[in-house]
Design a protein that fits this description.
CATH superfamily of the largest domain in chain A: Formate dehydrogenase/DMSO reductase domain
CATH architecture of the largest domain in chain B: 2-Layer Sandwich
Low-confidence stretches of chain B: none
Order of helices and strands of chain A: HHHHHHHHHHHHHHHHH
Largest sheet of chain A: none
Helix content of chain B: 40-55%
Order of helices and strands of chain B: EHEHHHEEHEEH
Strand order of the largest sheet of chain B: 2-4-1-5
Largest interface: A-B, 75 and 71 residues
Low-confidence stretches of chain A: none
Shape of chain B: elongated
CATH topology of the largest domain in chain A: Formate dehydrogenase/DMSO reductase fold
CATH architecture of the largest domain in chain A: Up-down Bundle
CATH class of the largest domain in chain B: Alpha Beta
Helix content of chain A: 55-70%
Shape of chain A: globular
Number of helices of chain B: 6
Oligomer: heterodimer
Number of strands of chain B: 6
CATH class of the largest domain in chain A: Mainly Alpha
Radius of gyration of chain B: 25 Å
Structural class of chain B: alpha+beta
Radius of gyration of chain A: 25 Å
């Protein structure tokens, strides 16, 4: 009893049911060790088909050139960069959960961090595709790296936000991968030591890097996690800030605003949490992990969704106010004619964005709605649609009608290959996620064990008893345990 | 490294393990290591391990990243090939902050992870002897190293007394070697030794 650590009874348990350490291992390893289910195969095959269609779309784009997309003189960034910003934003929730919530000592992150970090990595992989294939002559993609070349050497432009992006995204991907994998090593070692099949012993044996669980190694592991979290926190803020600089440092009305960095970061976290909800509502059900990813987790994440959704809403209104207050006619035109006016060619997209991102999440002020899986799942899809439209609105409505009416473009609609590329990244994302959910534990086993005696339901009940005892009773019953 | 003799005690509750570690140390036994399924805060202190310096290493890597970025960009844009970007100064430090920051983070993270792997001997195909494979599941395993002075029976009895559920004597390799977990491999030197005996 001496080591039962106190946690307020006001906080609901993070692990439900009567669990001990071994039970935790069993529960989380079961889906990995069992044969893949029919649902898994169907989901996996559908994802691979999407991926194949994406590969076809990209191949056609590479063979025939960017002309296969409907981009033209003024709308030079269309679906492609919209999708890039959308995917990179989704990634942000994973880092927020794994890094920022670690620094804030939020115990509930342990149930969802592993899956969310995996989501981050896959989302960044998808995001990276868009600027790369958008280069057109993709075989020259390495030109973005500052390497000694035969052209002088002519260095890349270190003053350009587009180059900052190259560094930001690649650093973000590398650090997320290292953070995720270093956390995964002890859990892979658990799988290795439980493995019965030869291939599993071999595979997890290699992947566990020879982890033993030595106290000294754990001490270093803790230090590493903490410092990586400390590094990832400003990193994740910097990544979307830099993405927003791609727009904000230009002089295009609708892009040229100083509010972009915080507004983009809030939007990124908003859409990322929506994607986490989409994935986890299904994952917890399919893998029978409801005891670890509880309604409480869903509830907390919905609170973050309503918070960040409202921040994004304030940002939208601030933009409108600043456009009016600036008294610049081009700014006014960009915001009040190209966006706000429902009768303008793209007015509909602005109102989809407003409806999905600002109005609909307000439903989460109600506890009952936050705790409803159906509402959560539906809302998570809606938010993702809304956030996609946010990027679409920012990119397309700012450039299709700018300063000179003679340069106003025709209505931009994507071709099948632009859409196909986007669908292909869904294929890539879900293919990776299905493989991850099959071969790796989707919940951090060691971290759950770490909080089990503080936040597990059966341990909290014991705590409850102690709280209701008088001091004399407590000393009588448990006092002799101390130091025994 | 060589094969050594250990007395191994299994514990099933960290509340018993903690005082046991203290008592075992007080009694003068040499704890080789304690293997736990998850990090137990304070156990390193109880075992008398010193704090890790990984943070310091991370700081040094980070500073290296900062210096690399600032140094390289300064040299490339204001010494090697001066390019006029819209009339801005060649040495325009504020515009270089994003990349400087990213490289700082990149160097610190990659450096720390590599250092961590080096210190803990973690790499693909690295194999180590385990005292109890359930130490990655639910068992806390304490291994005492036997010296020529150790009274085996007494040490085993002592471990039982302080709360170990099971106690055994095990001969284990203390180092690491390249091998696979689906095969029964051993260190190269040991293999040669064994072949010489047979």
């Amino acid at each position: 009893m001496a080591l039962l650590r106190y946690e307020s009874q006001v906080r609901p348990p993070l692990v439900e049911g009567d669990k001990d350490y071994h039970q935790v291992t069993e529960d989380i390893c079961r889906p990995v060790e069992a044969r893949p289910t029919r649902a898994w195969w169907i989901g996996f095959i559908v994802s691979v088909l999407f991926l194949c269609f994406g590969i076809l779309s990209v191949t056609i784009e590479v063979i025939y050139g960017i002309g296969q997309w409907n981009l033209h003189k003024t709308v030079g960034w269309g679906w492609d960069i919209t999708n890039f910003v959308w995917w990179i934003g989704i990634g942000h929730a994973g880092t927020l959960i794994s890094a920022i919530l670690l620094l804030f000592r939020q115990g509930w992150r342990t149930g969802v961090n592993r899956a969310a970090e995996a989501m981050t990595i896959f989302a960044v992989m998808c995001a990276g595709q868009f600027p790369i294939w958008h280069m057109g002559r993709v075989w020259n993609a390495f030109f973005v790296l500052p390497y000694p070349n035969t052209r002088g050497p002519l260095w890349v432009n270190f003053n350009s936000p587009l180059l900052w992006d190259v560094f930001a995204i690649s650093t973000y991907f590398t650090v997320s991968l290292l953070f995720w994998y270093s956390g995964l090593i002890p859990d892979v070692a658990t799988l290795r030591d439980r493995a019965k099949k030869k291939w599993a012993k071999m595979f997890y044996g290699v992947a566990a890097f020879g982890w033993t669980g030595s106290t000294k190694h754990w001490q270093r592991h803790e230090a590493l996690s903490l410092v990586l979290a400390g590094l990832s926190t400003p990193l994740v803020l910097s990544v979307h800030t830099i993405v927003s600089f791609d727009f904000a440092t230009s002089v295009v009305p609708g892009w040229h605003t100083t509010i972009f960095p915080p507004y983009f970061v809030a939007g990124a976290i908003f859409s990322g949490f929506a994607m986490v909800q989409t994935l986890l509502v299904v994952t917890r059900k399919v893998l029978a992990l409801e005891d670890y990813i509880t309604i409480e987790h869903i509830d907390v994440m919905n609170k973050i969704i309503v918070l960040t959704g409202s921040i994004v809403g304030i940002a939208y209104l601030t933009e409108l106010f600043m456009a009016w207050y600036s008294a610049v006619e081009y700014e006014n035109f960009a915001f009040f004619e190209n966006r706000l006016n429902l009768n303008s060619p793209y007015g509909w997209s602005y109102w989809i964005m407003m409806g999905c991102n600002v109005l609909s999440p307000q439903i989460f002020w109600f506890r009952k709605m936050r705790r409803s899986l159906v509402v959560t799942f539906f809302m998570s899809i809606l938010v993702n649609i809304g956030m996609w439209f946010e990027r679409f609105v920012i990119i397309v409505t700012s450039v299709y009608r700018d300063y000179l009416p003679s340069a106003w473009s025709t209505y931009y609609t994507p071709t099948i290959w632009e859409v196909g590329f986007y669908l292909g990244t869904f294929g890539l994302f879900f293919t990776c996620y299905f493989l991850f959910a099959k071969f790796f534990p989707v919940i951090a086993i060691a971290e759950i064990k770490h909080i089990l005696k503080r936040s597990g339901e059966n341990y909290k009940e014991k705590m409850d008893e102690i709280e209701h005892e008088s001091t004399e009773e407590f000393v009588e019953k448990h006092g002799h345990d101390h130091g025994a | 490294m060589a094969v050594k003799k250990f007395i191994v005690g299994n514990f099933y509750d960290e509340a018993i393990l903690f005082p046991a570690v203290k008592k075992v140390r007080r009694a003068g036994y040499k704890i080789h290591d304690v293997f736990t399924p998850f990090p137990i805060h304070g156990l390193d202190k109880a075992m008398g391990l010193r704090d890790t310096s990984l943070h310091t290493a991370g700081f040094i890597y980070g500073i290296t990243g900062t210096a690399t970025a600032v140094g390289f960009i300064t040299w490339a844009l204001s010494v090697d090939w001066k390019l006029n970007f819209g009339g801005k100064p060649f040495f325009s430090l504020p515009a270089w902050i994003p990349i400087t920051f990213e490289l700082t983070v990149l160097f610190a993270s990659v450096g720390m992870v590599l250092t961590f792997c080096y210190l803990c001997q973690l790499a693909p195909f690295v194999k180590k002897d385990h005292f109890n494979i359930r130490s990655t599941d639910d068992t806390f395993v304490m291994a005492l190293e036997c010296t020529e002075k150790t009274n085996e029976a007494e040490a085993m009895k002592f471990l039982k007394e302080v709360g170990a559920a099971e106690v055994q004597v095990q001969y284990k390799e203390t180092g690491w070697w390249l091998g696979r977990y689906d095969k029964d491999t051993m260190r190269f030197e040991r293999k040669k030794e064994q072949e010489a005996v047979h």
